[in-house]
From TrEMBL:
Name of the protein: L-tryptophan decarboxylase
Listed InterPro entries: Aromatic_deC, PyrdxlP-dep_de-COase, PyrdxlP-dep_Trfase, PyrdxlP-dep_Trfase_major, PyrdxlP-dep_Trfase_small, Pyridoxal-P_BS
Keyword presence, Lyase: yes
Residue positions, PTM N6-(pyridoxal phosphate)lysine: 305
A single BP term in Gene Ontology: indole alkaloid biosynthetic process
Cofactor: pyridoxal 5'-phosphate
A GO term from the CC aspect: cytoplasm
PANTHER family: GROUP II PYRIDOXAL-5-PHOSPHATE DECARBOXYLASE, MIP05841P
Organism the protein comes from: Nyssa sinensis
Similarity comment: family membership: Belongs to the group II decarboxylase family.
Pfam families: Pyridoxal_deC
C-alpha cells in the first residue's frame, strides 16, 4: 500500500520526527495554559477511545489531534513552571537529544559485547559525575567500585540491599536470613520497605527509628547505636542502614559521619540515598551535606530529578562492585563471550535486576557536555534562591508558618488555625491543599511531620521564574483567605 508508514525508513523518519518535534516544542511554548494538575475524573479516557485497536493505519496528524483533545486533559504537567509538588523531574533540550539518540540507536546493552560504547561511556560519565560531587576515589571504576545507572532510587536501594544481604549470609550461613536487621528513620523513603519485602527481610526486623523536630527530622546516631546494641544482645544480626540526604518529607539530612562510624564498627552496610539533594552537591557551598560519605558503602542520586536529565537516570555508586556482582550475576550459555569469560570487561546486567538496559548514559553525557558544570551549578542555585524567596513570602504573612528550616529548594509550611485551634489545623491545611490544586493554576503536595499535616512547595521545574513563585503565593493566599472566612 503506497504511502503507508514502514517499520523503519530514513525519509519517513525525518518527515514524521520533524512533525513530532514541532508538536513537542509547541507543547512547551504553551505549557502554562494547561491546568498543572489534571482535572479529569477516574475512568475518563475509556469513554473517549475505541474499545479495540484499529485494523488499518491512521495518520500521524489524526493521532496527534486525539492526543491533544483526549490525552492531554489527563496529563499532569510535571514540566510546568507552576509545578511545585513532590520533587522535580527535569527535562531539558540536552536530555531530549540524548533520549533521541538512545531511541534512534535502540540497542539493548546488557553486556559489554552487545554495544561496547554503552558500557564504557556509562563507566566514564559516572566517574565524571562522581568527581563533580567529590565522591571518594573508592567509588570510581578505576578501583574496586564504580557507578551504574539504575532506573530509580527504588531500584538502587534494592540492589544494594540484596548485595549486603548476600554478603553477610555468605559469612553467617543462609539459614540466618530471619535474623538480619535493617535500620532506617521514619523519614526514609518507602522504597526501602519494598526492598525489604522483595529481599525476604522479616517485617519485624525492620527498625524504623523515630525522628522529631529536635534534630530537624534527621536520624540520631545515639538512637541508632541503642537499637543496634539491643539487637545484637538478643542474637540478631544488624546488616544494613539506609541514611538519607534530603528526605522526601522535609529534605532532612542524616548525619553521615556519625552514622558511618557506627555502621563501620558493627560491619553494617551503609547506603546513602541522596536521590533529590545529591544534585545540589555539585555546588561547593552545598557539598558539606554529604560529608561523611567516605564511610558509606553505596551512594545514590537521581540525575532525572534536579540535574536536567530526562527520566529515568538514577546514578548508583558502590565501593565494592564484587558484592553486587556476586549477588546479581547469572551466566547462561547464550550470554557467554570471550570478553566476559576473560573478566576483561564490565557487564552491567550483573549490577541490576533486569537483563535488558537502555543507552541511558548518552543523555547524562550530553547534559554534562552541552550545559557544562558552571551552568548546571547556576541552575541549582537559581532554584534555591527562588525557594528562599518563597520562604520569605510565607514568613511575612502571620497566618502562615514555615515548619522546618529550608536547606535546598523545598519549603515546608502550614496555615495556622484561628485562635490556636490545633484540632482543626490538619483539616484546614488539607482543605487548603485541595482548593489550591483544584484551581489548576499550581500543583503542590503534602506530608505529615510530628502528626501535623504540612504543605510542601518544591521549586525545581526548568521553566520556573520568580513571577511564577509570586503568582503561586498569591493563589495560596487567596484560597487561604476564602477558607478562613468559612470558619
Amino acid at each position: 500500500m503506497e504511502g503507508r508508514l514502514k517499520p523503519m525508513d530514513a525519509e519517513q523518519l525525518r518527515e514524521n520526527a520533524h512533525k513530532m518535534v514541532d508538536f513537542i516544542a509547541d507543547y512547551y511554548k504553551n505549557i502554562e495554559n494547561f491546568p498543572v494538575l489534571s482535572q479529569v475524573e477516574p475512568g475518563y479516557l475509556r469513554t473517549l477511545l475505541p474499545d479495540s485497536a484499529p485494523n488499518h493505519p491512521e495518520s500521524l496528524q489524526d493521532v496527534l489531534d486525539d492526543f491533544q483533545a483526549k490525552i492531554l486533559p489527563g496529563v499532569t504537567h510535571w514540566q510546568s513552571p507552576d509545578y511545585f509538588a513532590y520533587f522535580p523531574s527535569n527535562s531539558s533540550i540536552a536530555g531530549f537529544l540524548g533520549e533521541m539518540l538512545s531511541a534512534g540507536i535502540n540497542m539493548v546493552g546488557f553486556s559489554w559485547i552487545t554495544s561496547p560504547a554503552a558500557t564504557e561511556l556509562e563507566m566514564i560519565v559516572l566517574d565524571w559525575l562522581a568527581k563533580v560531587i567529590k565522591l571518594p576515589d573508592d567509588f570510581l571504576s578505576t578501583g574496586q567500585g564504580g557507578g551504574v545507572i539504575q532506573g530509580t532510587a527504588s531500584e538502587a536501594v534494592l540492589v544494594v540491599l540484596l548485595a549486603a544481604r548476600d554478603k553477610v549470609l555468605r559469612r553467617v550461613g543462609k539459614n540466618a536470613l530471619g535474623k538480619l536487621v535493617v535500620y532506617s528513620s521514619d523519614q526514609t523513603h518507602s522504597a526501602l520497605q519494598k526492598a525489604c519485602q522483595i529481599g525476604g527481610i522479616h517485617p519485624e526486623n525492620c527498625r524504623v527509628l523515630k525522628t522529631d523536630s529536635s534534630t530537624e527530622y534527621a536520624l540520631s546516631p545515639e538512637l541508632l547505636n541503642e537499637a543496634i546494641s539491643h539487637d545484637i544482645a538478643i542474637g540478631l544480626i544488624p546488616f544494613f542502614l539506609c541514611a538519607t540526604v534530603g528526605t522526601t518529607s522535609s529534605t532532612a539530612v542524616d548525619p553521615l559521619l556519625g552514622l558511618g562510624k557506627i555502621t563501620k564498627s558493627n560491619g553494617i552496610w551503609l547506603h546513602v540515598d541522596a536521590a533529590y539533594a545529591g544534585s545540589a552537591c555539585i555546588c561547593p557551598e552545598f557539598r558539606h551535606y554529604i560529608d561523611g560519605v567516605e564511610e558509606a558503602d553505596s551512594f545514590n542520586m537521581n540525575a532525572h530529578k534536579w540535574f536536567l536529565t530526562n527520566f529515568d537516570c538514577s546514578a548508583l555508586w558502590v565501593k565494592d562492585r564484587g558484592a553486587l556482582i556476586q549477588s546479581l550475576s547469572t551466566n547462561p550459555e547464550f550470554l557467554k563471550n570471550k570478553a566476559s569469560q576473560g573478566n576483561m570487561v564490565v557487564d552491567y546486567k550483573d549490577w541490576q535486576i533486569p537483563l535488558g538496559r537502555r543507552f541511558r548514559s548518552l543523555k547524562l553525557w550530553m547534559v554534562l557536555r552541552l550545559y557544562g558544570l558552571e551552568n548546571l551549578q547556576s541552575y541549582i542555585r537559581n532554584h534555591i534562591e527562588l525557594a528562599k524567596h518563597f520562604e520569605e513570602l510565607v514568613s511575612q504573612d502571620p497566618r502562615f508558618k514555615v515548619v522546618t528550616p529550608r536547606k535546598f529548594s523545598l519549603v515546608c509550611f502550614r496555615l495556622l488555625p484561628p485562635h490556636s485551634n490545633e484540632e482543626c489545623a490538619n483539616k484546614l491545611n488539607h482543605d487548603l491543599l485541595d482548593t489550591v490544586n483544584s484551581t489548576g493554576r499550581i500543583f503542590i503536595s503534602h506530608t505529615v511531620l510530628s502528626g501535623n499535616y504540612i504543605l510542601r512547595f518544591a521549586v525545581g521545574a526548568p521553566l520556573t521564574e520568580e513571577r511564577h513563585i509570586n503568582a503561586a503565593w498569591k493563589v495560596i493566599q487567596e484560597e487561604a483567605t476564602a477558607l478562613l472566612r468559612t470558619l
